[in-house]
Amino acid sequence: MVDLVAQLTHRRKGHTLEAPFYTDPAIFKADMEVIFGRHWLFVGVEPDVPEPGDVMVVDVGTNSIAILRDDDGEIRAFHNVCRHRGARLVHEEKSTVGNLVCRYHSWVYDTTGQLIHAEHMGEGFDKSCHGLKPVHIRSLEGLLFICLAENPPQDFEELSRVMSPYLKPHNLRETKVAYQHDLIEPGNWKLTMENNRECYHCGANHPELTVPLFAYGFGFSPEELSDEERVHAENYACMLNDNHEGWEAMGLPSREVDRLDDMVTGFRTERLPLAGDGESHTMDTKRACKKLMGDMTNAKAGALHFWTQPNSWHHFMGDHAVVFSVLPIDAEHSLLRTKWLVHKDAREGIDYDLQNLIGVWMATNQQDSDLVGYCQDGVRSVGYVPGPYSPHTEMLVEKFTNWYVGRMLAHLAETRAVA
């Protein structure tokens, strides 16, 4: 059995984790209890349940969560478990219901989770004591987060305070899910997140993604630049500042906020310019959808990046948004769920071509999945030792790992204090 406290305490700063953190089922179990059982998790968007009675099911480890819009339009979340004998209530990922009816013994719950019908339970049976068990849920301008803990982290309010002005102009509540893609990645969830938190690998592995991106937007080593490259880097820095000033004058908050490893609900955001025509994450860098999102009036609004610990990243452009969630399956496999959002009135084939909309990230996701698999293969080997992060291009990977270690140690300290 791995000594988790010792491994975490002696983790070498600026380096990857020891192999068991990516392979050991016992550590995976601890991850599910501490990280995915006690923190705010991104699981979907309000347009996943656009109308009263719409239900979406999300599985977090062994926990199945039903997220639904009730008859009054409020979004609620419940454990997807009948209060009678524990049968799963909703079996499809997406469905529409009048009430929630258990297939086993036909117990019936309304859309607020209250038990409204249960035959043959006797005169003393109190239906009001057997409603569905609620799960904490919050909407951040249309992004849905749940927390399985009895007492969720209180700093979601700070996240909301900072991020709402950045997200509001895109008005996700007035969008629809144009496409969803689920990809099983052959690696531990932390490898998926580490891969996302850097673009050191992008130039050699992402020919589609790098078309709309500027090379100097994701870190570089100043001492390695030629005179010409240094001029390009300085020009990029000036362009970034000019764009931030211009976007903020348009009412689009844009400047970097980085709270990745100094908050329980860690996050980071910044709006970055796009190359070429500068409109969208497409192969020709032009908008993918004719109808712009929300209050956007200019397609050349760059791409707003938003990352949350422990399991999400997002890109919001003038014409569409792409949101990503990572849900662990076991110690060596993870589900990457990607959704593409467009204006709710946009028409496929008229306002947008689906393949053009999803093409860049469909290719990029598969490329990243392959890279994660290469890492998973490597950490299984006796030849693996923790390697150093680049201080110039992998500083945000270090922040993710530092956040993870800190949250695990904090929980273990609380556990020892209680004992």
Characterization of this structure:
This protein is α+β, with helices and mostly antiparallel strands and 419 residues long. The chain folds into two domains: 45-152, Rieske Iron-sulfur Protein; 155-404, Alpha-Beta Complex (Naphthalene 1,2-dioxygenase Alpha Subunit, Chain A, domain 1), CATH 3.90.380. Helices cover 29% and strands 23% of the residues. It has helices spanning 4-9, 20-23, 25-38, 156-167, 189-196, 202-205, 227-249, 354-379, 395-418, and strands spanning 41-45, 54-60, 63-69, 75-79, 94-96, 100-101, 108-109, 115-117, 136-140, 143-147, 175-185, 257-259, 267-272, 303-308, 312-316, 321-330, 333-343. The strands form four sheets. It has a seven-stranded antiparallel beta sheet, sandwiched between helices. A four-stranded antiparallel beta sheet has the order 4-3-2-5, with no helix packed on it. Strands 1-10-9 form a three-stranded antiparallel beta sheet. Helix 5 packs across helix 8. The two termini are 20 Å apart. The mean pLDDT is 95.
